[in-house]
Amino acid sequence: MPVVDVHTHMYPPAYMQLLRNRTSVPYVKSFPDDPTAGDRLVILPAEDTASTSRGRPIGPEYYDVNEKLAFMRKHHIDISVVSLANPWLDWLPSNEAAETARQVNDDVERMCAEHESKLYAFGTLPLSAPAEQVVEEIERLASLPHHRGIIMGTTGLGSGLDDPALDPIYAALEKHQQLVFLHPHYGLPTSVYGPRASDYGHVLPLALGFPLETTIAVTRMLLSGVWDRFPRLNVLIAHSGGTLPFLAGRIESCIAHDAHLKKLGKLENRRDVWSVLKENVFLDAVIYSEIGLKAAIDASGVDRLMFGTDHPFFPPLDESETEWLSVKLNSQAVQSALEDEEKVDAVMGGNAARILRLPG
Ligand code: URA
Ligand code: ZN
Fold this sequence. Notes:
Blueprint: E1 4-10, H1 13-20, E2 27-30, E3 39-42, E4 56-57, H2 65-74, E5 79-84, H3 94-114, E6 119-124, H4 131-142, E7 147-152, H5 167-175, E8 179-182, H6 203-223, H7 226-229, E9 235-237, H8 238-241, H9 244-256, H10 259-263, H11 273-279, E10 281-284, H12 290-300, E11 305-306, H13 325-337, H14 341-355
Parallel strand pairs: 1-5, 5-6, 6-7, 7-8, 8-9, 9-10, 10-11
Antiparallel strand pairs: 2-3, 3-4
Helix pairs in contact: 3-4, 4-5, 9-12, 12-13
The site of uracil has 6 residues, from loops.
Protein name: Amidohydrolase-related domain-containing protein
GO molecular function, one term: carboxy-lyase activity
GO cellular component, one term: cytosol
């Protein structure tokens, strides 16, 4: 049974060039006068402070395919399904988005073809372009031999994933059975982290902002009836579903007790969160603990969970560590949540091979 990493990012060369040409978020800036600063990746407004410690360091692990392959060898990963890292193409002017998406997706397709049976990909959509152009790219991606779906954030066309204007896009994704890898980027408004947030590094936005952003986005999709209109739309939710497996009962109870929804007749003939979790949702195993993983398994079933690493994010702070702690925590969680070896193999790769049509 192969070990498959379904949550692993890259900024392919075509995208790196775009970031290097920019001076506002998102951008990559090099500091030639300060060799200790190196290249810095700045993707969030809150990281864009006027110092050489702005953003985070970015090296070849973000864009060099050989680094990805070396990481895979070190961690005994046979196949990686790579996706563009946040913030994808969300920020592009509308008239440049479609052509850029084609270039970036073709760049990734070429890379996968050069490493046959090792690399597959989730493509990127030009979401700032008119919906027809987004649909065209979905159709094109469906014909690329190494692509297995798309990655996107939570903003949709600018006003979230409950926007009815997304319907033609959801229809195309459903028609072509393109899995949507839903991944956070924007977190929550920084005010919720309080006046001392900067004392705590990136912990609050990454540990809490990211999963809550995802949870809110999926709940809005549910409330707006996306899965009632598109019952075969499949979504791989990052970080073991944000907090959805844990909060599903509360979400359903709040719906069942909502007088406004009742008055609008929205409590009848709706698919509930439990059925969506079991029939439309796949979850990655990027949750770093047995407890979160068990909640994900209970909510969606062990056959819908897929191992991931989030490489190249969360590298070891001590560079002498060869095996990454972030990877070890996720694979140990799979082992301890599931003592049955067959189920462990399924989560580590068998499920991904079946769901994403990868070499088994
Ligand atoms: N930080 C990010 O910005 N993206 C990830 O995918 C993980 C951590
Ligand atoms: Zn990620």
